[in-house]
Design goal:
Length: 270
Amino acid sequence: MKKHQTIRRKSHKGSEWDLQWQEHWSKVGLPGYELPVGGRGAEEREFLGQARTPAGERQRLKRITDEFARAFRALYPVGPAVTVFGSARFKEDHRYYRLARAVGAELARAGFATLTGGGPGIMEAANRGAHETGGASYGLNIILPHEQSANPYVDDSIEFRYFLTRKVCLVKYSCAFIVMPGGLGTLDELFEAATLIQCQKIGPFPLILMGGKFWDGFKKWGEFMMRQEVFAREEIGFGRITDSPREAVDLIVRGLPPAVRARLKPAAKR
């Protein structure tokens, strides 16, 4: 009898989860990638929601290539840079916002440019810390249905229509990555950088997770995966977890090739 009750309870939980899922998306309406017809990002809507002819796809490839070329021109003179990833949802009074602000300040003091996704939350905080300390601060902003605008602490904002071009540039122009607490987008960026480092496509560059308590479950999951032999510990030796912005930046500086370290220009406070 108890076994039967347990099965029914699990089934009920499954149904409850389904109902919550359906209720959430019925309120949200169309998924976020279904951008308004005729507005900013309409071409992205067509790309994801419609079949196109080969000729139409060639036009799209040209737009992607043009977006890359524009971003490459804008980011070429940036110099040694570190990308800070993290959630857009943390407000100014949140401890993770304050931590990211301190990270941006430490990066500026060490002579790095700070790159972020250009939006609010952790991105704003890191840009703000760099800007207030006199460092270079750049935002690689994505055009979204809800019109995400660049935060006010960037020296320059480079706008992207496509997530793929934006993510390439956030990785391409960095010599290290600092990952603050965040959601699915942050995890996507974390794994993108980690995979490229593991496969020796870039780096080896430090990949530092800030906020030890937040990443505790992630660390345990990684240890479980190692026991399953899907990767070896030495393959992910580039990854570190810390709560100290200064330690994070010191780790990055120590890991730089001498030629790159010589190009660092510590900021003079504004």
